[in-house]
Amino acid sequence: MYVDIGNALDAEPRLTRPALDRLDERVADAHGRIERGRTDAEHGYAALNLPDTADPDAVREAVSRFDDPAAVLTVGIGGSALGAATLAEALGAGLDHHVLDNVDPAAVRALLDTLPLADTVVHVVSRSGTTAETLANFLVVREAMDRAGVDWTERTLVTTGAEGNLRDLADRHDLPALDVPAGVPGRFSALSTVALPVAAIAGADLEALLAGARAEADRLAGSLFESPAYAYGAACYALERRGAGINCVMPYAESLECFAEWFAQLWAESLGKDAVGQTPARALGATDQHSQLQLYRAGPRDKLVTLVRPRERPDVPIPETELDGLAYLGGGSLGDLLDAEFRATEASLAAANCPNVRIEVDRLDERGVGELVYGLEAACVLYGELAGVETFTQPAVEWGKRAARGLLGGGDVDEADAVGEKRRLVID
Amino acid sequence: MYVDIGNALDAEPRLTRPALDRLDERVADAHGRIERGRTDAEHGYAALNLPDTADPDAVREAVSRFDDPAAVLTVGIGGSALGAATLAEALGAGLDHHVLDNVDPAAVRALLDTLPLADTVVHVVSRSGTTAETLANFLVVREAMDRAGVDWTERTLVTTGAEGNLRDLADRHDLPALDVPAGVPGRFSALSTVALPVAAIAGADLEALLAGARAEADRLAGSLFESPAYAYGAACYALERRGAGINCVMPYAESLECFAEWFAQLWAESLGKDAVGQTPARALGATDQHSQLQLYRAGPRDKLVTLVRPRERPDVPIPETELDGLAYLGGGSLGDLLDAEFRATEASLAAANCPNVRIEVDRLDERGVGELVYGLEAACVLYGELAGVETFTQPAVEWGKRAARGLLGGGDVDEADAVGEKRRLVID
C-alpha cells in the first residue's frame, strides 16, 4: 500500500509538516501500545494478528462440501456482512453473491423468489449468535428452503461464537460451524472465518490475501513516516483535530464500492465516541465527481477526501467515432479516461485547498485487497490510540437494541417506554 | 409526505421553537421568490413545475417501440443517472435495470459480457450531449452490440438537449430522441424525460407519480408549518447554521437505497458552495444501526439524522422456532422487527440529544415516491433561498473537467499543467 499525504499538508484545515513531526513522537508511543496489545492478543489488538492466526485450510475444508454452488448468500449484519461483501465484490468476479443484512420484507421476499435455493450456499454469521435481524432472516430463509424441498442442513454454514442461539442451532442440526476468532470485533474480522469462506468459494487465493495483510503488518513502525497505515491514520487524526470532521472515501474502482461501506463502519463504530470521531462519507470515482465534488471543493472546510485506486488495471479501448466533438476520446481507453479523471479531481481538490490523501495498491488482486483491509484497520487502531478512545467497543448501540427488544415483547424495558414519549411536530 | 420535526428541536445543536417561528418570516419571503421563479419558469425553478409540464404520453410513445425488453441500460452520470436509478429501484420490481455511470473498465466489461444485448434497451442521457464519461461508455456499448450482431440503432433511446454530440448522433442515425426539459438542472430532472422512460418501461403509473409530486407542490405555502417540504428544508438550514454540518439520510427501505444517493447529489451540488452546505451521508436502516449509529449517538454534535420510511408495506412472517432464545421473534414478522428497530433508533437518537427528523409516505408506490422526490427537491430549493446560494449551478466542478480534458489531449489547458505540480509525500 502506498500512502501519499502530500496534499493533506498546508490545505484547509491546515496541517503543517512541523505539526506532523511533533505528532510522530506520539505515534511512537501508540505503536508501542499496539505492539504490546498484539503480543498479548488483547481484545481488539488481536485483529492485527489475523495474517498469522487465520487458518485458510480450515476455511477451505469447511466450504469443500459445497461443490461450485450457483450462488452464495451471506446472512449477517454490520461486521458480520460487510467484510464478506467487500471480499466478494473485489475478488469474486463471476460469483453470484448476495447479502441479507436488513429485515426489509419486500427485499427479503424478492431475493428468495429469485435465488436458486437448491444450489445456494447460506453462510449465517453472528458473533453473539443472538443478533435479532440475522436470526430472523435465517428463520425465513430456512423456511423458504423447506418449502422448496431443499434440505437446508445440507446447504448451511455457520460462523459464530462458542455459545448462543446460532451455536445451539448448529449443534442440534450438525451444521458445519466455524468459530469467530477470539478477541476480534466484527468490524475487524474481514480476514477471518467471518468473511474468508465466501472468498474461498469464489476461488480467491487466501494465502495471497493474508500475505498482503502481513506485508502491511510488517511495516508497522514507530514512525508515521515509515508505515503507510500509520501515515494515513495519523493524518486523519491530525486533520480531524483541526476541523476535518468528515472523511470522504472515494475509491476509483467499482469493485471497491463495498470496501467504502466496510471502511465507513470501521471508522464510525471504532472512532465515533466521547464526542469525537470523523464521519465517513462514502463516494465513488469518477461517478461522484458529478455529485459530491462541488461540495468538496466549494463547501465548508470540514473535510478530508481519501482517494483510493489500483496503479494497474485491465483496460477497455474506446472505439473511434464519427463524431468530431468526441475525436479526443477515440483511440484512448476507459482506463485512460478514469486515470485522467482521478488526477484531475485530486488536483482540483488541492487547487481548492481541500486536504486529500492518495492511497494506492499495485493491483486489485488478493494481495492488494489484503494490503488495503489490513492497512486501514491498522490506521484506525492508531487513530483510536491517538484520540484516546476505546477503539474496540460500541456501547452507544445498546440503548436501541434494548428498546427494540422491549417493543417486540421481549420483557419490561425502560428504553422501550421512552419510545412512546416521542415529541411530535408533524407537518402534513 | 409527512414530516415530523419534533425531535429536531431542543437537541444538540440546539434549535428552539422560537427560533423556528422567527425563521418562518424568512420562509414566507423565500416562498414568494420561489413562486415568482415558477411562474416565470426561470432556470432551476422550472423543475418545480414538472408535475404539470412533464408529458407522460410522449415518454410512453418513445418507449413503445421497445416491446417488453429483458433489460434496460441507462448510460449517464450524476443527474442523468441517479433519477432513473431511483425510480427503477423504487418502482421497477422485476425490471432488470443497470446503470453505466462510471468508466471503470472492468465493471463495464463485466456488465457487457452478461447483458442480453439483443433484448436490452439502451437509454443514453446527457444534457449537454458532450459528457465524456457518458459518450465514451456509449461508444463501447455500441461496439459491443455491433460485435454481437445487434442493430444498436434499433435498441437505443436518447435524451439530450437541442445541440451537442449526442443530438448529432441521434439525428445521423434517426434514433428516437427526447428533449431534456428546459430550465431543469440534471439533479432536479427525475420527473422528466431524463428518468421517466425507465419507469415507463417498468410499467409504472407515471400519472400517479406526477400526482404525488403535484400534491407536494400544492402544499408549498408561505409558512414552514403548513408545508412538509418547507418544514424539512427550513429545519435542515437552521440546524446547519447551528452546527449540524452533516445530514445523515437513513431510509428504512431497501428500495430507497438509490433514493439516498439521489438525495446526496441534490443536497451536495445544490447547497455546497460559498463555504456552506450540509454534507450528505448516506445510510440505510436497519443495517447501519450496526455500522453508523454508534457515531451518530456518541460522536461529535455535528449531525442531523433524517429517517425515511413508508407507513405501510408488504410483510413477511417470521416462522416459529425451536430455539428458546428466539421465541420472542417467532410469530412476529420482518415488518414488525423493522418497525421496532425504526422507532427504537429514532428514540435512541433523541435520548442522545441527536436531532432527527422523520419523513414518511403512506406507501412506497408511485404516489409516495412522487411525494418524496418533489418534496425533497422543494426542501432543497427553500434551503438554498434561505442560505443565499445559487442553488441551480455547480461551478466548482468545471476546474476538474477542464483538467481532465487537457490530460486527454483535448487542447492546451492551464488546469492540466497544474496536475503535474502535485506535492508528494509518499510513504510506502
Q: Look at the structure and give the mean pLDDT of chain A.
A: 96
As a percent range, the share of helical residues of chain A equals 40-55%
Distance between the termini of chain A: 52 Å
- CATH architecture call of the largest domain in chain A: 3-Layer(aba) Sandwich
Query: What is the CATH topology assignment of the largest domain in chain A?
Result: Rossmann fold
Number of strands of chain A: 11
Oligomer: homodimer
**Which value, in Å, is the CA radius of gyration of chain A?**
23 Å
Provide tags for this entry.
homodimer; alpha/beta; Rossmann fold; 16 helices
Write the layout of secondary structure elements.
The structure is a homodimer of 428-residue chains.
Chain A: E1 2-4, H1 17-39, H2 50-53, H3 56-63, E2 71-75, H4 82-91, E3 97-100, H5 105-114, E4 120-126, H6 132-147, E5 156-160, H7 165-173, E6 177-179, H8 196-201, H9 206-218, H10 228-241, E7 246-251, H11 257-271, E8 279-282, H12 293-298, E9 303-310, H13 334-351, E10 356-361, H14 366-387, H15 398-407, H16 414-419, E11 426-427
Helix pairs in contact in A: 1-10, 1-14, 4-11, 9-14, 10-14, 11-14
